[in-house]
């Protein structure tokens, strides 16, 4: 199955079925998606870019601590 960018309405329906806490959708190629509650964006944890992004942030924090 090919990955594609989902619309905000499809993301909302997916959250209603699967839950709100983490957004983990392998079929959705979006990196950032609207938050379930409130204002802003959150990451799609099924997207590999999300993990690279988080590891880069942790790497910067660790490097700043030692240098």
Write up what this structure looks like.
It holds the Pfam family DUF5808. Keywords: Membrane, Transmembrane, Transmembrane helix. This is Membrane protein. The protein is mostly helical. It has one domain (about 10-65). Helices cover about 45% and strands about 10% of the residues. The chain is built from two helices and two strands. It has helices at about 10-20, 50-65, and strands at about 30-35, 40-45. Strands 1-2 form a two-stranded antiparallel sheet. Strand 1 (about 30-35) and strand 2 form a beta hairpin. The longest helix has 19 residues, at about 50-65.
Give the strand line-up of the largest sheet: 1-2
Portion in strands:
5-15%
Compute the separation of the termini in Å.
45 Å
Q: List segments where confidence is low: pLDDT < 50 over at least 5 consecutive residues.
A: none
H/I helix tally: 2
Instruction: Work out the helicity level.
Output: 40-55%
Content-based structural category = mainly alpha
- How many strands? 2
Would you tell me the overall average pLDDT? 91
Count of discrete domains: 1
Organism: Neobacillus ginsengisoli
InterPro entries: DUF5808
Keywords: Membrane, Transmembrane, Transmembrane helix
Protein name: Membrane protein
Question: Quick recap of the structure?
Answer:
This protein is mainly alpha-helical and 67 residues long. Helix content is 45%, strand content 9%. The model has no long low-confidence stretch (mean pLDDT 91).
Q: Layout of helices and strands, plus pairs?
A:
Layout lengths: L7 H11 L13 E3 L6 E3 L4 H19 L1
Antiparallel strand pairs: 1-2
């Amino acid at each position: 199955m090919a990955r594609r960018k989902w619309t905000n309405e499809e993301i909302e329906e997916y959250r209603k079925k699967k839950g709100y806490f983490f957004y983990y959708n392998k079929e959705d190629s979006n990196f950032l998606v609207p938050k379930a509650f409130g204002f802003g964006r959150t990451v799609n944890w099924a997207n590999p870019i999300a993990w690279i992004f988080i590891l880069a942030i942790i790497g910067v924090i660790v490097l700043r601590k030692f240098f």
